[in-house]
Amino acid sequence: MDWVTALPPGGDRILNSCLVLADNYRKTPMFLPCPKDDTAKDTAIMIWNRVISHKGLFQNIISDRDPKSISELWTNLCNLLGTKLSFSKSAHPQADGLEERMIQTLEDIIISICAYGLELKDSDGFTRDWCTLSPALELSYKTSIHSSTSKTPEMLEKGWNQRLPYDTLKKKTLLMCIQKQEDLR
């Protein structure tokens, strides 16, 4: 569990941070846009509503020593839920290395796809900022093959990969190429 804090405001303009959670076994990410000044209580509620209610309880949470993570409320909540709370040492960030790598990837995606710091508008005038696109960014990560497992996080989590627009386009393109070859014969 770690936060990316140097992000442009997005969503309703107060979302300028992103909580990154990772399942270390499946390499599955969760990108949760949030205000930088969220409290430990806000973070606990967000994790309950958007993570635990969908995926279940964590066995172990590894976090840096962010004030939100080491608060009495957070410690008590983890004790109540039977979740072990571990902290990485500042001299040993490898303990939460998966999150650090996901953060680097998330920042790269935001820079390249979302035109960092700019709002993207479609033909209907809807704003497409990084917060709006965060579910798609998460899906992109979850459906990419991970080097350490040679599988997608989605395959490890569900046993199958989601069907994506790319899959449909790829199939249609292949069928069009086959038809074109037959027409040329």
TrEMBL record:
Alphabetical list of PANTHER family matching this protein: PROTEIN CBG26694, PROTEIN NYNRIN-LIKE
Phylogenetic lineage: Eukaryota, Fungi, Dikarya, Basidiomycota, Pucciniomycotina
Integrase catalytic domain residues: 1-161
Gene3D superfamilies on file: Ribonuclease H-like superfamily/Ribonuclease H
InterPro entries referenced in this protein's UniProt entry, alphabetically: Integrase_cat-core, Retrovirus_Pol_polyprotein, RNaseH-like_sf, RNaseH_sf
Protein name: Integrase catalytic domain-containing protein
Highest taxon in the source lineage: Eukaryota
Keyword terms of this UniProt record: RNA-binding
CC annotations in GO: nucleus
A Gene Ontology molecular function term of the record: RNA binding
Any one GO BP annotation for this protein: DNA integration
